[in-house]
Amino acid sequence: GDVLTSDSTGTTYQWYLYGVAISGANAKTYTVTQSGSYQVQVLDATNCGSLLSSALSVTASGISIVDANLYWRIFPNPSAEKIFLQTKETEVNFTILSIDGKVILSESKWNSANPISISQLNNGVYMIQLKSVDNVKHYGTFKFSKI
Length: 147
Hints:
Strand order of the largest sheet: 3-2-5-6
Number of strands: 13
Radius of gyration: 17 Å
Shape: elongated
Helix content: under 10%
Number of helices: 0
Structural class: mainly beta
Order of helices and strands: EEEEEEEEEEEEE
């Protein structure tokens, strides 16, 4: 997998994905398990630390969707008004993120037969993160373009 390495020296490191601490990710390096926006905070021996680093958007290579029996398609891509999720799942949780990892829109128990309106978004590239309704399975993070 892809490995992130902190340029700073410290005694303790904490890696973050979309601003949320990653459990157990407390070494100078972190092996990426999914695409996303990563940051690190470095602490010294007295637990004095730096601010969070700038966010780094990572597209992980060779990472597959958690459940290989599921099929995902997001279309049309690019789109101006709405996108559709094509999947075997009837409901999903989704989060739309800006390319720098800021949450733009989040919905729980979304009926995947319904379109997702993106007309309110500015033109650009976004990511949509798909999870199971119970938030246990992360199905993947996919890019789409609003035109």
